[in-house]
Amino acid sequence: MPASKSAPDIHLYHDDLPDGLDLGDVVAIDTETMGLNPLRDRLCLVQLSSGDGIAHLVKIAKDQKPAPRLAALLADPSVEKLFHFARFDVSVLSYYIGAIHGPIYCTKIASKLARTYTDRHGLAELVSETLQISLSKAQQSSDWGNDSLSEDQMRYAAADVLYLHQIKDRLTRMLEREGRMAEAQACFHFLPIRCALDLNGFGHTDIFAH
Asked: For the domain 9-199, what is the CATH superfamily, name and number?
């Protein structure tokens, strides 16, 4: 399946969002880090999109400065935050930028509850099935800590947020059809607590076990 040939519209900023940027009521968000341990591996990039085909990338320097506008967006209870694998992104953002308030939607959780006919719940699989677009994951393990990003890195990072609104709509219809929307909402509501447990050392402990 060929990849989409249209070049994404990407805006790159440093350390924070620009003043006055309105990303609407539902914002797709993703992160790139130096690894998979939020307590060890620093946040390098935050990607955002309002679902309008534009990706906004915020490059976070190693000696991080405060990002008050990004923090205000995360804390805004009126804005729904849309993630794929929110457990990781919410943990990283909470640790490095600030607390997340308001509704959260995770397309990975939604996919696992709705698409029970498969065990493939990665973003690439969802984009392929929903939009018939093939995503390249070649930059997934690249060095995001560089002071500058390559064009390939920016395109990869943008793709992680550009399609989430459409995927959310498809998965929500499936969840409602299968009668699992209430369970999904309960999982989304629990995510900040799950992330707090991860950050406090309970990531691999089943606190509900005997």
From this structure: Ribonuclease H-like superfamily/Ribonuclease H (3.30.420.10)
